[in-house]
Amino acid sequence: MEGTEPSRSVPKNRYVLAAVLVGAEALVGAVLLALAYAGVFNSGQDADGGQDTGASRMITLFGHFDSPSGDFSAMLTTPPVQASIANLVIPKVDVDAPVGAKGVDAHGRMESADGPWDVVWYDFTAQPGFGSNAVFGGHVDYVNVGPAVFWRLRDLVQGDMIEVRLKDGSVYRYRVAAMATVDVDAAASDIFSVVGPTEREVITLITCDGTFDKTIQTYDQRLIVRAERMAGSAPGPAPH
User: Fold this and answer.
1) Which of 1, 106, 132, 177 could join 126 via S-S bond, C-beta 3.0 to 4.6 A?
2) In the chain, what percentage of residues exceed pLDDT 90?
3) H or E segment to which residue 33 belongs
4) Cβ neighbours of 82 (radius 10 Å)
5) Which helix (H) or strand (E) holds 179?
6) pTM of the full structure
7) 181: exposed, middle or buried (C-beta count within 10 Å: 0-12, 13-18, 19+)?
8) CATH number of 5-61+80-231
């Protein structure tokens, strides 16, 4: 998400906090606020649950972010694996990327991936296997490189598999459930429903989308993918 228009990339650390906050809970709130100002999410739905075409900032490509897509009355009971994350694998779009943990820097700005082929897991969100919402970010393209790790994220459809592989060889498997694009100026009021905690165990992937805006050196939209942990899925070994 970093660079200039020809390479379709976005500068690092453009997620600026609107206030100085302290403490663990404040840090989470600050990050969510930063994401909101960066335009990560806004529901854009009217009171009837349909798309608000007048003031909408979100286009739901498929699925719903606020409810599970199936019957999950039997919740997963497998104890979580303590090992750290190694790779994010998306077979449909040929992604097998190393994952690093990041949060916000000393200036209160969200940290982006180190390079075009890296993925970030944000440590203010859930750890895979522990329930709730684990949020990942990656570049769609990169300066002097071109297409990057999440370039083909838009090609995903419902049911495509995403794997989170841990350093001890364990694998958590998820199925794509929803996808949306969001205007970069999305309001802060809706951000928590997407990057905040969830009742169902999910992962959320975020990258840039839309048109590159030279005036602010970023794209005017974000592409969001949500995948739900597969029912009955226990952490198993990675395939060889």
Assistant:
1) 132
2) 40
3) helix 24-37
4) 11
5) strand 170-183
6) 0.75
7) middle
8) 2.40.260.10
